[in-house]
C-alpha cells in the first residue's frame, strides 16, 4: 500500500494492450515491438545480449534463466519481430519496498538508437506502480554517459527528480572495475 504522502512515478506512456497471459505494450519504437515480462525461454537470449554488449558485467547463463523465473514480474523484455531484442532486469529492494532496483538493461546492437531502453524502463515503472513503488534506483559508473542520459531522460519524461550520489568505490570491486554511483529516479524519501 502506498503511503498518503507518496505517489507512483508518473508516466505519459500510452495505454497498455493486454494479451491472454502477460500484459504487454506495443512500444513507440516500431510497429512490431512488444514489451512483456520475460519467460524462462528468454533467459538465453538475455544472456547473449548482455554478452554481446561488451560493457555489462556478464552473469552466468543460469543467472539469466533463474532471473526469468523468480523476477519476471519486475523485469521486462522487448520482443522485436518475434525475437527478444532488449531486456531490463530489476527487483524490489527487500528493505525498501517502495524502490525498484535496476540490475541490468541492454539492447541488441542492431536495435540501438530507437529509444527501446527508455520504453522498457517506462513500461516497467508503469507495471510496478500499483505495488506502491515510487522510486527507481540503479548504479552507473562515471564513464557511462549513455546510461546517465537514459536515466536522466526517464526522469524528465516522467516529470520527477533524479539524484546521484557515491555508492561503491573502485576498491569495493576487483581490480579494473570503475566506482559505481547511485542514481535515484523519483521523489526523495521524506
From TrEMBL:
Gene3D superfamilies linked = 3.40.630.30
Name a GO molecular-function annotation. diaminobutyrate acetyltransferase activity
What segment(s) does the record annotate as region Disordered? 1-31
Q: What is its EC number?
A: 2.3.1.178
Among InterPro entries, the record links this protein to: Acyl_CoA_acyltransferase, Ectoine_EctA, GNAT_dom
Ranges of residues in domain N-acetyltransferase: 33-186
Q: Which UniProt keywords apply?
A: Acyltransferase, Transferase
One GO term under biological process is: ectoine biosynthetic process
Question: What pathway is this protein a component of?
Answer: Amine and polyamine biosynthesis; ectoine biosynthesis; L-ectoine from L-aspartate 4-semialdehyde: step 2/3
Keyword field contains Ion transport: no
Similarity annotation:
Belongs to the acetyltransferase family. EctA subfamily.
The protein's name in its UniProt record = L-2,4-diaminobutyric acid acetyltransferase
Organism, by scientific name, is Speluncibacter jeojiensis
Amino acid at each position: 500500500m502506498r503511503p498518503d504522502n507518496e505517489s507512483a512515478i508518473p508516466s505519459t506512456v500510452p495505454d497498455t494492450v493486454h494479451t491472454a497471459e502477460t500484459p504487454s505494450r506495443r512500444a513507440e519504437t516500431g510497429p512490431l515491438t512488444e514489451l512483456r515480462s520475460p519467460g524462462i525461454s528468454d533467459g538465453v537470449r538475455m544472456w547473449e545480449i548482455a554478452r554481446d554488449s561488451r560493457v555489462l558485467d556478464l552473469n552466468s547463463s543460469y543467472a539469466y534463466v533463474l532471473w526469468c523465473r523468480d523476477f519476471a514480474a519486475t523485469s521486462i523484455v522487448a520482443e522485436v519481430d518475434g525475437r527478444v531484442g532488449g531486456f531490463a532486469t530489476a527487483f524490489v529492494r527487500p528493505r525498501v519496498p517502495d524502490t525498484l532496483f535496476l540490475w541490468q538493461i541492454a539492447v541488441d546492437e542492431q536495435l540501438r538508437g530507437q529509444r527501446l531502453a527508455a520504453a522498457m524502463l517506462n513500461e516497467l515503472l508503469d507495471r510496478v506502480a500499483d505495488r506502491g513503488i515510487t522510486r527507481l534506483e540503479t548504479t552507473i559508473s562515471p564513464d557511462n554517459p549513455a546510461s546517465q542520459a537514459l536515466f536522466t531522460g526517464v526522469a524528465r519524461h516522467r516529470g520527477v527528480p533524479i539524484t546521484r550520489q557515491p555508492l561503491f568505490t573502485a576498491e569495493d570491486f576487483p581490480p579494473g572495475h570503475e566506482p559505481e554511483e547511485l542514481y535515484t529516479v523519483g521523489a526523495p524519501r521524506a
